[in-house]
Amino acid sequence: MFLVGGGILTHGFPAIHHWVESVTAGQNGIVSGLVSLGTDAATGIAAGAAVLVLVNLLQKTAVK
Questions:
Q1: How many whole angstroms separate alpha carbon 12 and alpha carbon 3?
Q2: Which structural domain, as residue segments, surrounds residue 19?
Q3: Measuring CA to CA, which residue among 18, 21, 14, 49 is closest to residue 35?
Q4: Smallest Cα–Cα separation from 40: which of 63, 14, 61, 9?
Q5: Which of 9, 53, 58, 61 is 20 to 30 Å from 29 by CA-CA measure?
Q6: How far apart are CA 60 and CA 23, in angstroms?
Q7: What stretches of 1-64 adopt beta strand conformation (E)?
Q8: Count of domains in the chain?
Q9: Using CB atoms within 10 A of its CB, is residue 59 exposed (0-12), middle (13-18) or buried (19+)?
Q10: What gap in Å lies between CA 24 and CA 29, rounded to an integer?
């Protein structure tokens, strides 16, 4: 799930997408794939962590 979500987010931000393309340009398929997967995973995990923090903050501030 992190890879899929991270891939969607990575492709949604042109700066990140073009950075990954520039880093992987001229690399073989394995290195290119690993860099792309690593970027997607890191983006997905960071987005998931940000949402988790936001949900926890909203739950703590909600009136019960």
A1: 14
A2: 2-61
A3: 21
A4: 9
A5: 9
A6: 41
A7: none
A8: 1
A9: exposed
A10: 9
Cα–Cα distances (Å) from 54 to 20, 33, 51, 62, in that order, read 28, 31, 5, 12
Q: Which of 2, 1, 34, 39 is nearest to 17 (CA)?
A: 39
DSSP 8-state assignment for residue 62: S
Digit-coded pLDDT (tens) for 29-49: 899 999 999 999 999 999 999
| 6-24: average pLDDT | 92
Residue 8 CA to its chain's centroid (Å): 8
The answer for residues whose C-beta is within 8 angstroms of residue 3's C-beta and 6 or more apart is: 37, 40, 41, 44
